[in-house]
Structure formats: structure tokens, C-alpha cells
Amino acid sequence: MNVSRPYLPHAGKASGGHARDGQRHSWQNEVRIWWREIDKVLLLLVGILMVLGTAAVAAASPASAERLSTSRVQLDEFLFLKQHLVWQFLGLGALFGASMLSRDNARRLGIVLAASMLFFLLLVPIIGVEKNGAQRWINLGFSFQPSEFLKPGFAILLAWILTWRLRDPNLPVLTVVTVVMGLVAGLLMLQPNLGATLLFGGVWFVLVLLAGVSVQRISVLVGSGVVGLTATYFLYDNARNRIDSFLGGGTAFDQVDLAERTLLAGGWTGSGLWLGIRKMNLPEAHTDYIFSVIGEEFGLLVCALVVVLYLAILLRVLIRLVDEDNLFVLLAGAGLVTQIGGQAFINILVNLQLFPSKGMTLPLVSYGGSSTIAVCLTVGLLLAITRRNPYLQRETPGLFDMLGQKEGPA
Q1: What is the DSSP letter of 165?
Q2: What percent of the chain has pLDDT over 70?
Q3: Residue 371 near residue 361 (C-beta atoms within 8 A)
Q4: Which residue has the higher pLDDT, 233 or 1?
Q5: 220-234, 263-277, 334-348: which has the minimum mean pLDDT?
Q6: What is the DSSP letter of 10?
Q7: Which candidate, 174, 200, 155, places its Cα nearest to that of 406?
Q8: Lowest mean pLDDT: which of 155-159, 316-320, 345-349, 353-357?
Q9: What is the 3-state secondary structure (H, E, C) of the chain?
Q10: H-helix or E-strand spanning residue 19
């Protein structure tokens, strides 16, 4: 009786080839799934802002290089542009890498990021590096601000804690997230960093509001926040001086006044790339006051376009979340976009002399080192959390239905 023997491919050749093919097909499938589920409109809006940011840093780089040059060291006028391109490349890597995570892995990464950055914030008063009168940086062979990387982790951590109510409505989640907020605020004010404290407080407020916490409890906590801000005015000279300067109209040719003069110098259409003059006297032209440089060189119309792009990002994320049936996704997405939008509009209002100076960069536009990577990571996590299979239809209540159903103590 003849029994045919099955053909067995050579283990060292064909099997390895099939394994490699399988790995390649698996990677290609992951990319296809990512492209199908990702919010392409949001990705496009972010890309346009980053391109505008590159042009703005190119315009501001000569002014900042000249101001920071000394008689001994002359900086290349395009030094900051060259460095910005490198940081943007690294930031895009962080953005796309984070955006390919599943929702669960994005949540885990955010929680780990929050815990590790809180640890580094505790170390800032001990081993932190001081720059421009503020001790905010940690040097581990490279310098970074823990508060910048805490931003995405903070939103995700608070969103995760607030979802505990779904398992047990009696859990004191409001107390827990308020304690976390208090810890972060205390550590930030030791630096001191009032601007970041206000931004984190805004994210906390948005999340507890969306989580369905009673208005009475929120009112009590907001009142406590007002008391804290009042105490800050009397306890921190830097904050008091900036607030007094803002309320008093400032002085001629201080940095905020210079920013406004620079912003308006180009009129509606701008003076043209590298043709601006007032930017040469503007401190931090490539970071805090880059919006004013855009106004001088590219015009108020381009400034309006930048504002519209930020509003479009906010609106796009809200549209994406309004029909969401996952509470964590709703809260985390809202928190992350609040971080980006809040920071952007604080920076713009400072440039317009409508808000006290805060030393806060314009996300996705300003020059930045580790801060560029941090904001790109924030966008990547936002894209990962809002990923959605377009072929699946939800069968459970969406945002408004969920908020209407939430009851019980927080």
C-alpha cells in the first residue's frame, strides 16, 4: 500500500520565508487598519499647523539668533529653524507611533506617563535646573520639563479615575481627582508656574463637568480655586507683578507691548518673509511670541487662519466625541483637546494683550525641544483614543444620553 508523504518545505528556507511574509502582511494590515480608523481630518489640520509653524520659526529664527548672540559667540541666523526641523521630525515619530496604539494601550501609556512625570515633578525642587528665574527643568543628559509631558498623562489619568463610577457609583472619584489636581498645582507653584497650573485646572474642570458631577460640588471647588488664585496674587511676586502690569496697561516697550506692536506692524497681508523689523527687538520671538512674528511677516489674515485652525481642531474632536458611547474615550478626548486648545488660546491672548504674560508656547507652531515631542505625543494619543471603525454602528447611548443617565454621588 502506497502512502503519499506530505511535502515538508525546508525549515531553514521556506518556513523562514513564510514567517517573514506573515510579519510583513501583519504590519501592512496594521497600517491599513490604522488608516481606516484614524481621524484623517484632524491629522490634516494638525499637519497644516505644523507647516505654518515651520514657516513661522523660519521667520523668527534670525531675530532670536541675533538677540542671543554675544561678542564671543555668534549664532547661525537659521540655528533655531534647523533645530526645529529635527525636533519636528522626532515629534512626528512620537505622533504616528502613539496614534497606532489601541485605546487600551493608549490609556496604559497615559497612566504610566502621568505617574512618572509626577515623580519627576517631585524632584524638580531638589535637582531641577533654573532658567529665566524659574526652576522647571530636569537634566538627565538632556533637558526637559516634566510638566510638558504630564499634560497628556494628566488628562488620561483623570479620565480613567472618573470612569471608576461606572463600576461603583459610591466611589469618591471627585475627591480623588481633586487631590491629584491639588498635588499637581502645588508642585507647579513651587517652580513657580502659574500658567501651567491654570491650564491643568481648566482640564480638571472640563472633565469633572463632563463626568456628571453635581453643579453644587463643582461650585464649591471653583470657589476654592478662586481663593487659591487670590492667595497666589499675594504670595508670589512674579504672578503679582505680571497681573499688576496687565491690569495697569504695562509700560511702553515691555515684552507684551512689543509683541502687540510687532503683531500689528505687518497689517493685513504682512511685510513678507524675513522683511519684518520689529521682531528684531522682540524677546522669545521663536517661542512665546511667535504669533506676533506671524502677524508682522505674514499678516493678520494668516493670524486669523491660525485661530481658525485651532477652532477647527476643537470642533472636529467634539464632533468625533459627541456620538461616543465610551465614557473614557469621551473624557480623555475632551481633556486632551482642552490641553491643546487652552494652551493655544492663552498664548494668542497674551500676544493680543488680553491676558497676563505666562511664558507659554503656541502648540504645534512655536519652536520647542522636548515640548514639541510632548505636544506631538498629546496629538498622537488623541488620535489613538478617537480611532473608530467606520463600518461599525453603535448600539448604546451616545454622549448626551450618557450624561442624562448619570446619577449618584461622586
Answers
A1: G
A2: 80
A3: yes
A4: 233
A5: 220-234
A6: -
A7: 174
A8: 353-357
A9: CCCCCCCCCCHHHHHHHHHHHHHHHHHHHHHHHHHHHCCHHHHHHHHHHHHHHHHHHHHHHHHHHHHHCCCCCCCCCCHHHHHHHHHHHHHHHHHHHHHCCCHHHHHHHHHHHHHHHHHHHHHHHHHCEEECCEEEEEECCCEECHHHHHHHHHHHHHHHHHHHHHCCCCCCHHHHHHHHHHHHHHHHHCCCCHHHHHHHHHHHHHHHHHCCCCHHHHHHHHHHHHHHHHHHHHHCHHHHHHHHHHHCCCCCCCHHHHHHHHHHHCCCCCCCCCCCCHHHHCCCCCCCCHHHHHHHHHCHHHHHHHHHHHHHHHHHHHHHHHCCCCHHHHHHHHHHHHHHHHHHHHHHHHHCCCCCCCCCCCCCCCCCCHHHHHHHHHHHHHHHHCCCCCCCCCCCCCHHHHHHHCCCCC
A10: helix 16-37
Helix (H) or strand (E) holding 135: strand 134-139
pLDDT the model gives residue 136: 79
- Residues belonging to the chain: 410
Higher pLDDT, 120 or 239: 120
Beta-carbon contacts of 161 under 8 Å, excluding residues fewer than 6 positions away, are 173, 176, 177, 180
Q: Which of 45-49, 278-282, 400-404 has the lowest mean pLDDT?
A: 400-404
Q: What is the pLDDT of residue 166?
A: 80
3-state secondary structure (DSSP) of residue 129: strand
Cell 531553514, located at residue? 12
d(CA 120, CA 106): 21
Strand partners, 144: 138
